[in-house]
Amino acid sequence: GHLAESLWPGFLPEELSGSVVRALVAETAPDVSAVLASVTNNLVRIALKKTDFAEFERILLAVESAPRRAEPCSEHVHLAFLAQNILHESNFRKLMEIALDNRPLDDVLPRILARDPTRVIEHFTGLLAVPGGVEMLPAMARLMRAIGEPAIGALVTQVFDPRSPRATAAVKLLAATRPERLVEVLARALPSWDWNLQDMAVSELTRIQPAGLPLALLEA
Asked: 195-208 vs 164-177: helix axis angle to the nearest 10?
């Protein structure tokens, strides 16, 4: 890892990660496979450290597209672990931290995070439940819009969640991201919410005035 950083102080060469993963797929000796898997993990770490998300995505795609054998074998155990570890919790949290930072949003980041929009929303739900978390709502909305329908659709589903904190977070995120989608489900969702959430949703939508709101309120 330190050698790679010293050789390439800027971005890593595009072919480097692909070559390492191809070698890992072809390798039959378990001990050599372990070394190649360790090298790949180091490349992931360096890409994240350098905020080189194009390289991070290349490694992820290379591992995801690597052929799998029907029967598990010792030399491919490391490949299976790699697929899980690239987006393990600490890496995921780092990606989310950067995505919410006050900087231009890298186009690659939403593509990486779109693999698991539910996990993104769970992260936001936790943030919105702590003091000061709502101040990050504009950055959350920016990321949700960039991820697009997979995330928006998951939010629409979550507004019906019987657990109040999850429904509240979904309403806040939808109102900030796609208020018209919240209007579409308002009549069905409103009866299931407690009074505080009903009041918050109606107040926020009244402030925004998305199309179709008067009819939705009449239906509700």
From this structure: 0
Radius of gyration for the chain, computed over Cα atoms and rounded to the nearest angstrom: 22
Q: Taking residues 111-125, what's their average pLDDT? A: 95
Ramachandran bin of 132, using left for φ above 0, alpha for ψ from -120 to 50, beta for the remaining angles: left
| Per-residue model confidence (pLDDT) at position 74 | 52
Cα angle, residue 147 at apex, residues 167 and 130 outer, rounded to 5° = 40
List the structure tokens of 138: 């504009």
First to last CA, the chain: 59
Question: Which tokens in the block code for residue 11?
Answer: 């971005």
For the chain, give me the number of helices (H) and strands (E)? 14, 0
Contacts (Cβ under 8 Å, ≥6 apart) of 172: 128, 134, 137, 200, 204
Q: Which regions of 24-89 does DSSP assign to beta strands (E)?
A: none
pLDDT: which is higher, 21 or 122: 122
The C-alpha angle 100, 106, 107, rounded to 5 degrees, equals 120
pLDDT tier at 65 (50, 70, 90 boundaries)?
Answer: confident
Predicted model pTM = 0.82
User: What is the chain's length?
Assistant: 220
Specify the pLDDT at position 76.
60
